[in-house]
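Continued from yesterday's entry.
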Amino acid sequence: MAKTMDWFLEKYGESHQNPTNKIIHWFCVPAIMFSLFGLLYAIPFPVERGLFTNWASVFYAFALIYYLRLSIPMFLGFLPIGTAIIFGINAIYNAVGADAGRLALISLGIFVVAWIIQFIGHKIEGAKPSFLEDVQFLMIGPAWLLHFIYKKIGIKY
């Protein structure tokens, strides 16, 4: 059976029922996304690092392909989100004097704190994080949040 976006969202939602854990995810999933892009951006790139010449942009391109495979509306939703994150990371990189090390430290701090809070949320939930079952759920967390927005404004995903 091919796994669909609906299947992933339903399965992901099973371990995200507790209201406190849901709220935690609304803050921490975007923070993890942002910090992951920051960590990837900080890795040396074969050509001069720029807005779209960095490992975060490469990862973003593959993520978009992943979402496109599952759902065109999710793909379209992540186009502006990921692009905004890339612009934000680039702005931070420039604000810290184009120092990849400083960007990496800031991103690492956000990443670690957000994951600690996520694990606290799952402790409150009483359920393991979904990605321990299938690593693809790391990509589904952001889509799970976006699907709530889509439902609210009447967009089918």
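--- second protein ---
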Amino acid sequence: MNKKKKNNRIKLDTVRSVNNNIRSSVRKLNPILKSIVGKKVDVAIRELQFSAKRITKEIRKTVSSAVANAENNNQYDIDKLIVKEAYCGKKIIMKRFRPRAKGRAAPILKPYSSITIILSEIKQMESHGSKS
């Protein structure tokens, strides 16, 4: 029962977006996702925009979707959003075969992944000092 309350509290503080069936392996996605964790949303989107990797377009789309969810569903301020978590998981693997020499066949594995981006709003403490 205590665990359920904790999960509800986490859902109130955060916004998430999931992108399923991305045509890339988890091994290629993990370094990109680790690089944007803890950064402000606009900095993360800018880094993804100028990256040379092909898959960053899909990650950028997922981050933008999470920002839209935060703005429209929860009325968060976009300037205060940071990427709290970013992780990926395995989905299906399409298996194809390529003919090789002497009647053999070599497998070709085409993996798919899912990306989950969790955003959080920064709570800034206001100083109670006197203004001069």
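The chain has four helices and three strands. The chain has a mean pLDDT of 85. Will compare against the first tomorrow.
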